[in-house]
Structures are given as structure tokens and as C-alpha cells.
Design brief:
278 residues; alpha/beta; Uracil-DNA Glycosylase, subunit E; six-stranded mixed beta sheet; 10% strand; binds uracil
Length: 278
Amino acid sequence: MLETDLARKLLDFYLALGVDEAMGDSPLDRRRAEPLREAARPIADNHPPPLKPAPLNGPRLASSPPLDLAALSPDRGLADARSLAAGCLSIAALDAAIRSFNGCALKQTAMSTVVYDGTIEAPLLVIGEAPGGEEDRLGKPFVGPAGQMLDKMLGAIGLDRRHACITNMIYWRPPGNRKPTDAELALCLPFVERFISLMNPKIILLAGATPTQTLLGRTDGITKLRGRWFDWTDSSGVTIPMLPSYHPSYLLRSPGQKRDAWQDFLRLADRLDGFIQS
Ligand code: URA
């Protein structure tokens, strides 16, 4: 077999395993990787700057060695997530708590912890699924192709990231951009719920099936649930209207659905009217 055929077969094998990024020229021993000391950031910093892209010859990982296997047990992880989230009295503290959390195994393979972007005082909270490759590199949600699509859709109703805060159900990129598992979603949920309570937005836009099904506790498809208003009620009884719509990545793959998404965004604009100061 020719060397190029062999190399192509090896690349296909990597792709099948979800290895779809060229991160460096030499292999990385994850157990000895340089820790990303995110927990040491100042808690008073209201909006942490995005992480710098990792240098090609030395990727950093979001995990902090030595690996604490006990922290990765699902029961302990969930208990840790709940108590960490409950103890946070501001989004800045919550941001730091999420960065310090080692209970989700996705952190071991991600470069960044991606928490939020935009304006936490804004009336609109957009919740997506999980960071992709570009988000992982830059440490900010929705900055790749899906993010550009989301920006365009917000722009079409006169909004940008000054009028919205953007976050995800999961804070670490799942390898190969696979869908997060139910266990991973459950581990991050206490942080997501606390984020909603602390931000207390006027309206929540759910981007796609994952945040919709998780926060509504329903298994119906997004086609059935999109465009309808639902209430989010937090632990202290505060109620916030939520609108599910298609995920921007889905719209990139299926542009025929943009018409329905546009109807959803018009509904959103209508309900936000009066809350937006330009
Ligand atoms: N898709 C998401 O759901 N979230 C992101 O941050 C990027 C892509």
C-alpha cells in the first residue's frame, strides 16, 4: 500500500474516533499537561476575558492534574456541582466555581472552560448545547459558524451581544462535537439553573433540542416544541418565559427551516419590546 493511502487510512481511523483537530506536532501526555489555572482568576472580575488560543506546540487542557478520580464519580460530581452552584451569589462567583469544578470528564479533553459571553444585565439569555471546536479554542460560546448564524439572527431583530447573554448547557467541548450525554447534562444542570436565577433575564431563548428537552423535562422533538412559550420557574418561585427555536447549526444544514426560525425570532422581538435600550 502506498504511504499516502496508509496515511489517509490512519486519518480516517482518527476521525472515526472523534479526533478531528490537529493540535500539535508531538503527542501530549494529558496527565502531565500544564494546568489551566482558571480557578485562580479574580472572582470580582465581572466578565472574564476570553482565553488566549492555545499555542500549537503546547496545547493546554482545562483539567488540573493530578487527576482526582473520586471527583469524577457521578454521585460525588453531582453533589459537588449542586453545592458549588448553591453557594454562588453572583455570576462572577458562579463563573469561577464552574472553572474550578473537576467532576465532568469532558474537562479532561477540552482546552477551555466556556461559560458565557455577552451582557449579564441584558434582558435576553440564549442557551445553546455545548462548545464546539472554535469555542473551545477561544474560550467563548457561539463564536464559530453557528455563532455567526446566531449573531445574524439576533441582528435581524435589531439585537447584538450587548442585548443578550449567551451560554450553554455544557461548559466543555464534547470530543468530536458529539451530543452531550444525559449524565453530562445532569452534572452541568445545577450551574445552568443557578446561572438563570442569578442573571434573572426577562426572556430565555433555547437554541435547539438539547436545552429545550433538558430544561422543559420533555422528550418531544424540537419541531413540536419550537415557537411556543413555556415558563421556567426557579427554586424561589421566579418565573421566566422561555422560547425554544431551532439551533443555528441546524439552520446552516437545513436552510429551509429558516422561515420557521424567523417566525420564532419575531415572537421573541415582540415580547422583548420595551426591555431593550439601544
Ligand atoms: N453550538 C452550541 O450549542 N454552542 C456553542 O457555543 C457553539 C455551537
